[in-house]
Amino acid sequence: MGAAAVRKAQEAAWLNGLTSDEQQVVTTARRLTEILPLQGACYRASLFLKYHLEIVHGIVGTAVVGFVNDGTDDIDCSHAWFEFGGHMTDLGLVRPLNPQIQRAGPLIIHGREFRSGHRWNYQPTRSVAGLAQFAQLLADPKYAVKMRQADQLHRTMVATAQRNDLIRTYLDNAPDGGTYDVIAGRL
Fold first, then answer.
1. Residues spanned by the domain of 117
2. pLDDT tens digits for the chain (187 residues)?
3. Domain tally for the chain?
4. Angle of CA points 42, 48, 51, to nearest 5°
5. Is the pTM of this model over 0.90?
6. CA-to-CA separations, 84 to 23, 24, 42, in angstroms, rounded
7. Is the Cβ–Cβ distance between 159 and 166 less than 8 Å?
8. Which of these, 73, 77, 82, 94, is most buried using a 10 Å CB contact count?
């Protein structure tokens, strides 16, 4: 048996060991990676999973809006991922918004790595070093406006992730026309 066949058999065994809700999370996330332009779409992907799985399938998970750090410096970047049953799904870091500056991370679906990538550190809030770096950038006139905008966006997304009505509004205002109904219709 070749390496690809072994991986396929291992994945099938893993999938068969999941509950029906977990299988639905995996199926939806995998399909979403095929139809959603994911470059820089961590908020959209995570919020879509939370909203769609809850509204359509009755599966209540959490869209976490926190921070990630690639380990090369102390800058913590706002990022979103989905959690269900103690397992993370991250569809965003595999295609970062700025691939020329940000390292591509792994594609993680329900705790399983489907595509390898650079290991990022996940945290619900900025680290102490990240807070110090943020304060330093905020004090620099060259970066202050961008830092305030990024902080406001992060706060808005934290609030949005808590309420399905705000999630739906966010999804329906996708600038590329990929509204909730358009994406859900392609699943």
1. 3-186
2. 687 788 888 888 888 899 999 999 999 999 999 887 767 689 999 999 999 999 999 999 999 999 999 998 999 999 999 999 999 999 988 887 777 778 888 999 999 999 999 999 999 999 999 999 999 999 999 999 999 999 999 999 999 999 999 999 999 998 888 899 999 999 9
3. 1
4. 135
5. yes
6. 11, 11, 16
7. yes
8. 82
